[in-house]
Specification:
The longest helix has 25 residues. The chain is 22% helix and 29% strand. The chain has 601 residues and is α+β, with helices and mostly antiparallel strands. The strands form eight sheets. The chain has an eight-stranded parallel barrel, surrounded by four helices. It binds beta-D-glucopyranuronic acid. Beta-D-glucopyranuronic acid (BDP) binds next to loops.
Length: 601
């Protein structure tokens, strides 16, 4: 799916701003879609609604909410296709224009769009969006349904409070706040009636040159032509045909921390589209992860789209700051844990040379033996999982920053190893098939009984999350070192590259102790120092991504002091002691050849 753009043939505007809003219930209420909401609240779009008010009903809402605004379309665009496009609405939504449904969508982290029939449009158009935030065993991410049982069982005199406690809520089976609403931009754009629907730029490095081929999905009669612009916008190749192979001589490669982007201009009848692309190659050979033929070492983070007030809503200034902090600390990469991030963030990473592992929104999965209703739910979840993998790759295939796909975070692959392998094998194949670059595919695992897991050894790149010294052997870093060593010795046998995609310790900024103890800034440093000393011993370890880039909001619980505090930065992006530790460590670790000769380049 193409990212909307304004150019000489296409008009684009966004519908961001203050919208009307009201909280609904569990049932969809069409009256909030067909007529103006009476006494509406005011809410900002795009952003999660949860933290925009000082009101627990917004934070802990369960069910539908309704958004409304008017929009007008300037005269002169009548002969064009008019498309409304949502970057992401979390989790499920229905869209009406002037009282008629124009589209609906399932899944909270990928874009969708609808063509607006010109007969439907008036001078002033009422746009209504219903958003449902409920998660359960059939959704991604996964919601627990029976969590209340743990409160309800076995306690004396409980009946009187049972009704209150059993009131329906979202119980995320994942550790981040279930921020919801219109989280990413709403855009209105035009194309001519005959238009370019999709584009893919295929590149292969050949010595000093690149062999390039641009393919496109076109709606209408005729063929398209292609020209290539360099980074400065100079046309360096003209008038090629779609699917024709041509050469970019003396090619500038897209490299980590040294990005170079070309643009393919596709012209088709009255339409044109500018697609940026980078020339770079990804390959796994033996236990090495190669970018442009050289062994790459991932230094970076698992992240979240998370900030004060916006919640999971897009904040592009924050994205710029995050990338700047990554450069400051010497990181070169992150994983879009635990869902596909905004297109705007990926565009920025393309420009900045940040390497990204793109993750599907699949977190909290287990594979129980199922019958009846549970089986139906798990089948619905499996179908949705396929859909999001297809949609994520369709959206992101052109991004040079993306070097691998993660199909899920921490599914329970050791609990029922055969069922888990049967589940992931077809998804693994699907991801390779959908991706014209066939990027490496991984599933990020975290199993105490890791020898049972059959999925990690099966995928291209082994990614493990590990918390020895925190959840396991909490506070005992000697035990952590030993446990990590035993686990690395085990994984060495597969001859595949492995990276640690999460490891960390909750750390309350400002808590210090000369003798490092849990939650202090000194402990976080000692923790990382201990685990890293083990990682450094193994050549097949191709990367370290700390959990988490910054402190983030999550569900309340006794293990969480005002959110998850494993950030290397605080939620407002101030460095903890560990940030200085990593800055020093990573200044000595080169992007390439770290493990080969331990000197780098
Ligand atoms: C990991 C999860 C991550 C959590 C982290 C933690 O992948 O989402 O936030 O644990 O507990 O298991 O901090």
């Amino acid at each position: 799916m193409l990212y909307p753009q304004m150019n000489e043939k296409r008009f684009l505007t966004d519908l961001n701003g203050i919208w009307d809003f009201c909280l609904g219930g569990e049932e969809f209420e069409e009256k909030f879609m067909t007529a103006p909401i009476g006494n509406p609240e005011k809410i900002y779009v795009p952003a999660s609604y949860n933290d925009q008010k000082a009101d627990i009903r917004f934070r802990d809402h369960y069910g539908f909410v309704y958004y409304q605004r008017y929009f007008s379309v300037p005269k002169g665009l009548e002969n064009n296709r008019m498309v409304i496009r949502f970057g992401a609405v979390t989790h499920n939504c229905v869209v009406y224009v002037n009282g008629k449904e124009v589209t609906r969508h399932t899944g909270g982290f990928l874009p969708f769009e609808a063509e607006l029939d010109s007969a439907l449009l008036k001078e002033k158009n009422l746009l209504s969006v219903a958003v449902d935030n409920r998660i359960d065993l059939s959704t991604l991410p996964v919601g627990n349904e029976n969590n209340t049982a743990m409160f309800a069982d076995g306690l004396p005199n409980f009946e009187s409070v049972r009704k209150t406690v059993l009131k329906k809520k979202n119980y995320p089976n994942f550790d981040f706040f279930n921020y919801c609403g219109i989280n990413r931009p709403v855009k209105l754009y035009t194309t001519p009636k005959e238009y370019i629907k999709d584009v893919y730029v295929d590149t292969k490095i050949s010595g000093e040159n690149a062999n390039v081929k641009v393919s496109a999905e076109l709606v209408g009669e005729g063929t398209a032509t292609v020209s290539i612009l360099d980074k400065q916008g100079n046309e360096i190749i003209s008038n090629k045909e779609i699917n024709e192979e041509f050469i970019i001589g003396n090619v500038n490669l897209w490299q980590p921390n040294n990005a170079y982007l070309y643009t393919a201009k596709i012209t088709f009848g009255d339409d044109c589209y500018y697609q940026k692309f980078g020339v770079r190659e990804i390959e796994i050979t033996g236990d090495k992860f190669l970018i442009n033929g050289r062994p790459f070492y991932f230094k970076g983070f698992g992240k979240h789209e998370d900030s004060e007030i916006h919640g999971r809503g897009i904040d592009e200034a924050l994205n710029v700051k995050d990338i700047a902090l990554m450069k400051w600390i010497g990181a070169n990469s992150f994983r879009t844990s635990h869902y596909p991030y905004s297109e705007e963030m990926l565009n920025l990473c393309d420009e900045e040379g940040i390497v990204v592992i793109g993750e599907a929104p699949a977190v909290g999965l287990s594979f129980p033996e199922a019958h009846g209703e549970l089986l139906d739910k798990l089948n619905a979840r499996a179908n949705h999982h396929k859909q999001v993998i297809e949609d994520m790759i369709a959206r992101d295939k052109n991004h040079p920053c993306i070097v691998a796909w993660s199909l899920a975070n921490e599914p329970d692959t050791a609990g029922s190893p055969d069922r888990a392998l049967d589940y992931f094998k077809p998804l693994y194949e699907l991801a390779h098939e959908c991706d014209p670059q066939s990027r490496p595919v991984t599933v990020v695992v975290c199993n105490n009984d890791y020898v049972k897991d059959k999925v990690a050894p099966f995928v291209d790149l082994i990614c493990i999350n590990r918390y020895y010294g925190w959840y396991i052997f909490g506070g005992d870093l000697n035990a952590a070192e030993q446990a990590m060593t035993v686990e690395m010795d085990y994984f060495a046998q597969f001859g595949k590259p492995l990276m640690i995609t999460e490891y960390g310790a909750d750390t309350v900024a400002g808590v210090h102790n000369a003798v490092p103890n849990m939650f202090s800034e000194e402990f976080q440093v000692e923790y990382y120092n201990t685990v890293n000393s083990v990682l450094d011993k193994y050549d097949f370890v191709v990367g370290e991504q700390a959990w988490n880039f910054a402190d983030f909001a999550t569900i309340q619980g006794t293990l969480r002091v005002d959110g998850n505090k494993k950030g290397i930065f605080t939620r407002d992006r101030r460095p903890k002691l560990a940030a200085h530790y990593f800055r020093n460590r990573w200044s000595k670790i080169p992007d390439f050849n770290y493990k080969n000769d331990n000197k780098g380049e």
